[in-house]
Specification:
Blueprint (H helix, E strand, L loop, with lengths): L4 E5 L4 H10 L6 E5 L9 H11 L3 E4 L13 H22 L2 E7 L22 H16 L4 E5 L2 E2 L6 H11 L2 E5 L3 E2 L2 E2 H19 L12 E4 L6 E2 H12 L4 E5 L19 H7 L6 H11 L1
């Protein structure tokens, strides 16, 4: 009997690489990892041809235009990949009977909330990246009512470009660094997010194969996922310093002292109760996951 195929886009990104690292443990599936050279998701004809040939049972869209500041001047490309590309994949999944999981962002919110953002809260992006990702969400839901969208925040891993690796590098190069202290959220270790996604897929597949998970089924819609906790970027940097044994001094500064082309939300905390309850997931504390990542580094 042939195994169901899981198609993963964005193969070399933080989430794509984390999914690849975990794939060996999920022997019930055949994984296919593609990057933009193999499958440019914004090209509808190529995507349709690929799906017709490969016939995946699942598609996890980890591909994205993630250069937040660059997106302010490269709007067309950001909207092509994050908007059109997501919608095209959702449509192909609908057409060829594949289950679709799309990854989105906390940047669809403006950061003005006093409480952790729920999936039903009003969106209001403050930058081009957020607008392009919100467009992707809308097209996913329009083209595929069965899609799952997972919004996440502050993603990092032992591979790729991210805050943790940048801090480790700067802490080696400089005696002191300044880090923004008035932006609040919770980091997401890409390894934890990858595991959550594969658990959702595995359980849904097990239902289809009479695998005894009749209490957990595929429930389409929007979900939030990040590690547990509430910290600032400054707190995150201090933890990286302490856990890595660095002697570098970390100074808190205000967002106004560190201007960037794209405006960042001041508050990015996501309420993760829905995904935990629906899929019976246990979400690790942010510091425990940071420690695991640093050990791998």
């Amino acid at each position: 009997m042939t195994k169901p195929k899981i198609l993963v886009t964005g193969a070399y990104g933080q989430l794509g690489t984390s999914l690849k690292n975990l794939s060996a443990a999920y022997t019930a599936f055949d994984f296919i990892f593609v990057d933009r050279d193999v499958l440019p998701i914004q090209q509808a004809e190529l995507v349709a041809q690929y799906f017709a040939t490969v016939r995946p049972a699942y598609c996890i869209n980890a591909a994205a235009y993630t250069a937040v500041d660059k997106a302010e001047t490269d709007k067309e490309e950001a909207f092509l990949v994050n908007g059109d590309g997501a919608g095209i994949l959702a449509s192909a999944c609908h057409q060829y009977g594949a289950k679709f999981i799309h990854v989105s962002t906390d940047y669809v919110f403006d950061g003005a909330s006093p409480d952790p953002y729920k999936e039903t809260d009003r969106t209001n992006p403050t930058n081009t990246y957020g607008l392009s990702k919100l467009r992707g969400e809308a097209l996913c839901l329009l083209n595929n009512a069965d899609a799952i969208i997972i919004r996440t925040a502050w993603v990092y891993a032992e591979h790729g470009n991210n805050f943790v690796k940048t801090m480790l590098r700067l802490m080696k190069e400089r005696p002191e660094i300044n880090v923004v202290s008035d932006q609040v959220g919770a980091p997401t270790y890409a390894g934890d997010l990858a595991e959550a996604i594969l658990k959702i897929v595995n359980r849904e597949s097990a239902i289809g194969n009479n695998g005894g998970h009749s209490d957990i089924k595929w429930v389409p819609g929007i979900y939030h996922y990040s590690n547990k906790g509430r910290i600032s970027w400054y707190d995150f940097a201090v933890a990286i310093k302490e856990l890595s044994g660095s002697a570098c001094k970390v100074n808190p500064i205000l967002t106004t002292q560190y201007p960037t082309p794209a405006k960042r939300p001041a508050f990015s905390l996501l309420d993760t109760h829905k995904i935990q309850y629906t899929y019976q997931l246990t979400i690790p504390e942010w510091k425990d996951s940071l420690q695991r990542c640093l050990q791998k580094l």
